[in-house]
Design goal:
By secondary structure, the protein is an alpha+beta fold. Helices cover 27% and strands 27% of the residues. Pfam families: DUF402.
Length: 113
């Protein structure tokens, strides 16, 4: 679960990742399915559905893993509908310390594993 905000601290969206451990695939990207939710929790939508379906067709996401994802999706939607779990307290107030330096990617970050 991520809460994205702009540089002034205004909320942009909630982002719930349904993912295997990161594995960057040449020409495919990262195996993930995401639930994106508006800051007021009124507008959820699924992102990467076509890519997820393609991973299912290719066998990257097998039936066992697909059932796990479906259960996790159900739990996330139930928490959203009931305003429980991470959706219970409204937008989080935490913000990074402005004195922290911006992180930098290593020089070989674009090289597949």
């Amino acid at each position: 679960m991520h809460c994205f905000q702009d540089t002034s601290g205004e909320p942009l969206r909630w982002y719930v990742n349904f993912e295997k451990p990161y594995l960057r695939r040449q020409g495919v990207g990262i195996d993930t399915l995401d639930l994106v939710v508006t800051p007021d929790l009124s507008g959820p939508h699924w992102k990467d559905r076509d890519e997820y379906a393609q991973l299912r067709r290719l066998g990257v996401i097998d039936d066992y893993l697909h059932r796990q994802v479906e259960r996790a999706k159900g739990r996330a939607i139930t928490m959203l509908d009931n305003r429980t779990g991470p959706f219970a307290g409204g937008w989080p107030a935490w913000a990074p310390d402005p004195a922290w330096p911006l992180p930098e990617l290593p020089a070989d970050a674009d090289v597949p594993d």
